[in-house]
Fold these 3 entries.
Entry 1:
Amino acid sequence: MNKKFSLIIHGGAGALDHIKREGKESEIMDSVYSILEGGRQILADGGTALDAVEYCAIRLEDDPLYNAGRGSVLNEYGEVEMDAAIMDGVTLDAGAVAGLTAIKNPIQLARQVLTKSEHVMLIGKGAREFAQLHGFPLMPNDYFFVESRVQQWREAQKLGGMMLDHENATSPKKLGTIGAVARDRQGNLAAATSTGGIVNKRWGRVGDSPVIGAGVFADNETCGVSATGYGEQFLRTVLCKMVSDFIYFQRLDARAAVSAGIDYLVQKVDGLGGIILIDKNGHCAARHSTSGMIYGLIEKEGETYCSFVQSPEYFAVG
Ligand code: ASP
């Protein structure tokens, strides 16, 4: 069956006004556009949804603008510790890594967990050993560090708290967790999420991003979803699975499902964040309870659309 492919990616949610003020908007939109065009090529050439989301996540991880891979935020000890997950909507197979150091592209390792291990999630030292066994090189710490993250971390240390990448700090580049969802020409869905977590996180803290159902979910019968925001709130509401369940049980379309999901997040835990989604019919939608969110999409092989802060896909809460 030859269906039209769709692709949606995000670069985090939060207060983004400062990025506009600093004139960084076009740099970000160019990056989102170029990554979507690369994804378009893969899907147009008959690539799978899994290939497309992995490709987009790798490009987003490699770009120091975002809080994933290179450019990740720093934990309490001034180190980068990353989380990522990928899910196949055909089989519900999933791979995830958490508390990961030294691996250039956590999403690639998550895909390796999906295909080459009988497990779903590997953490810390073990995940690194698995990576080495499968030929992933270990990168030096310096590779991951960017100056703006070090400044942001110093501010958080001074204030003595944790924070979302986009919050408060005054450093110029505060972009977020990344994610991608695709539907390929076979009609198969996949989703991926990758992050450095939250600034100044402590005690081996792991957020929602690598947890299947919380920060990522894909099921061909419903939708693919990727989340960004306060991980603890998405964990407690199991938000991505909740959104899939809205579609499964209530037959909601993409827009109604993201609205129901964010309403639920806000009503239940006063949650801050956003989600991107493609439903089984290839419709794309995004919604956030934060004032801004970075994302872009290609719906059913149409034009590439990038959004910064508000957009037609933004539905105000309440
Ligand atoms: N959800 C991520 C976490 O809590 C952070 C983010 O999306 O910016 O680890």
Entry 2:
Amino acid sequence: MKKTFLFLAILIMAGSVSAENGYRLWLRYDLLTDKALLTAYRARISTIVADGRSATAAITKEELQNGLLGLLGKKVVMTNTIGHGAIVTGTPAMDVIGSLSLKDQLAKTGNEGFVIISTLYQGKKITVIAANSDIGVLYGTFHFLRLLQTHQPIEKLNIISSPAILHRVLNHWDNLNRTVERGYAGFSIWDWHKLPDYIDQRYIDYARANASIGINGTVLTNVNANATILTKPYLEKVKALADVLRPYGLKVYLTARFSAPIEIGKLKTADPLNDSVQQWWKEKAKEIYSIIPDFGGFLVKANSEGQPGPQDYKRNHADGANMLADAVAPFGGIIMWRAFVYNPESNDRFKQAYEEFQPLDGKFRKNVLIQVKNGPIDFQPREPFSPLFGAMPKTPLMMEFQLTQEYTGQGTHLFYEAPQFKEVLNTDTYTKGKGSTITKVIGGSLDNHTISGMAGVANIGTDINWCSHPFAQANWYALGRLGWTPTLSAEQIADEWIRQTFTNTKNAVAVIKNIMLHSHEALVNYMTPIGLTHIMYNGHHYGPMPWGNTLNRPDWNPVYYHRADSGGIGFDRTVKGTNALAQYSAEVQNRFGDIRSCPDDHLLWFHHAAWNHTMQSGRTLWNELCYKYYTGVDSVRSFIRQWDKVEKNIDEERFVQVKQLLNIQLKEAIWWRNACLLYFQTFSRMPIPAGYEQPDRTLEYYKSLRFPFAPGN
Ligand code: BDP
């Protein structure tokens, strides 16, 4: 007994009980274990000379000092004298920075970008982190610390960096009662009940994490909105949050419930062309800005899944968006109006957003962005790109990605999203000839827009490690990095994230990266290969239910999406079917339209193909389906084997967590594979090829499973 106690005490003293619970995210700043590197960095970093009096500048100084203390294991003092090894941070208002002729470089960095250079100043070797604004200096400081954390050389730095996208925003689907729609990481971090008087340390840590990856906006509330957030007491709470987030460069946005003028304004209508309604929103905007002067604006889900909107009054999306845009314009606010719309009358849900929005191109006010989900349906593991991208040249289109893994393994699957995001960003829409990539569409360069945006539906909650699955943090990280530099590769982002989050040990980095980079394809294979989509359970969306056919709305039923019958499987979107393909440019139509040339991985999105159709792999469609499902499961088995190899390189706590989760992922992958193949087999009437392990349960068993308390619903 005594012995254990002593042992514990020693452990605590040695600091090794400071369990690695994941709270520190990618900002761990642990002492560098590479001795040579440590010596080199120490030789190059001796003091901090930091300028600026703002709250942001204070944060910068503290971050730099804490970061260096942790990484170098020594207190790097602040001074005003520039000697060898000084890290100089500030704006051109600072004499030394002013004297360094950085004008040309700084001219390229705008209001948020930064310059990091190694240079000589009066014969002394120094490192300068300069920007036009204090927030730029903070971003630059985080970048510098990232270089150290990822073991990069810092001798000859010459970095000029600025964000490609203006609004880089998290969308919290958080309700006022603290539940999180599609949240798998606990409750909402916004403790509305205790606000405005109680400031949780989490808010500050959240802001800091976002600043470290360049995220500059946050929508605090669910798109399925509650008008209460727009009432005075709640606006006071929002103000308290805005005050905490502001020094970190984060603007606060809210979701606007379209019927708020009725619900909290006592009006009889919310018709956007009605004078009193317009006036009500103008007054509301004025009130909000009097409380939060730099309020970002509104995100709106209208006429979608039961949310109220302008169509309730026979008006269109432009009428609705413009009314709100006019209300916030005098204060510099923006409206992010979502294009996620569909209703059961349409003959193909795929087509609807385009049908409703494309004709409105050119009709929106200058401060409106249309926020478009990456694919035409709904955040599925793999979708073709939304045909709206490139099709509305007069309107800035904003990307909406889903960080929270509603359709991609929820809280239990290791799923790194950057490959999925990059697949979309790199896609060529051909709307203005070759090279009209989605990166250029949303960055604004294709159509000369000055405002641009990228949003991610947040995966953050009260769990100690923020995102529940230790690897889910990587998706938050990826959103920030891609919003700043969309041309970064998924591999580069994974590399940085692993080095900061887990380890810099070369082999371990390679192994973990390999798992991450294959996780997208693996998940597509064991859930929805060859272009299958939307075949999960109703409601909570957890697990496979390709047989689902009981909901009133056909477009909520899995059978609507796969259309399996004895002849084949897939949704015919060619001219012979719904002709959704016509919404794309000719080049894209050609690529997908011909069943012989349509890439295998999108086949069932566009064609109803025969079970014995010959795939590009040479296999029949049925055999390919089996092959993909089995390959997906095998990939998870290999992730488990690979993960075992890094045991000695990372902390035990997270090693064990991930190991357990991978085992759940394997079970669930097998469940997806078996349930889907057994069900589709009732149509194909073909055997699962010999040599594959045969399902050990019946289709009836899978159909009988129920999960009344699956999270996030
Ligand atoms: C769907 C989610 C639903 C969201 C909706 C949206 O199931 O909870 O409200 O997207 O994006 O995928 O509005």
Entry 3:
Amino acid sequence: MNIMTETRIIDGKAIAARLREEIAQETAAMDTQPGLAVILVGDNPASHVYVRNKIRACEKAGIKSFESRLPVQATQAEVTAEIQAFNDNPAVNGILLQLPVPDHLDADALIHMINPAKDVDGLTFINIGKLVAGDQSGLVPCTPQGALALIKSVETDLSGKNAVVIGRSLLFGKPMAQLLLAENCTVTSAHSRTKNLPEVCKQADILVAAVGREKMVKADWIKPGATVIDVGINRMEDGKLCGDVDYEAALGIAGAITPVPGGVGPMTIACLLQNTLRAAKQSK
Ligand code: NAP
């Protein structure tokens, strides 16, 4: 039997807007405007939308944007040269290579060309290593950083809490687990080979789902009162977006939950701006 709880809806849009406003105030008081370079290779329509949104967000936050658009047939050497030029440009504090890149390019090799001090996606080995080592000088991937901020908006003390992260990608699941571990949570990383996933999830005080499977997490996987962070973005048959959690069913069971859209998504860009500001301050 489920105990009915009043579920708090975590308003990622509002929290991200506040963060962006704080960043804008900080950049307005700086002598030099921070700069973010975005490299886009090819003509993936979704990537074009993401890049446009990032550039607009930069403008509003007082961050100068540098755009490099390369044709789909651009070679590894051409993209590398572009990264190198931004590495050498002192006006550029952050470099973002929009993923995915076309198949003929080696994305990992390109990412590792980025100067770690400008790696605002937090994907270079130096930044991943710093995160694992607990060295706070590194740049942390944006989406898990944003998800942690949302968790902290409803949880005052994470210490000793059971956290389950479903998904172990380098982009999200692994850094998310590390961030929760750094907050002294007892962390379980679940993935496609995890046995008894519903039971594992049911132990979670904090449940983070990042799989990419429509409404996979059912109401009876959720511990009553748990904080549920839904990272998944899935397009349903009717064209609408939904997360990895059966949101409607989770209401009344979860203590707090992020909606999709309007939860984790808006935090990603806000944290990208935050990382750029941070990189600019650290470069001084
Ligand atoms: P990914 O690289 O495809 O990783 C998916 C993970 O889910 C893998 O670790 C996989 O396990 C695990 N998985 C797959 N099927 C499973 C199952 N049946 N049970 C348990 N685990 C399962 O994806 P991602 O990049 O981490 O992204 C995950 C989702 O988050 C996607 O919907 C993506 O669109 C969304 N996302 C949103 C944002 C945002 O800004 N809101 C940012 C990033 C990602 P294995 O490792 O064993 O294969």
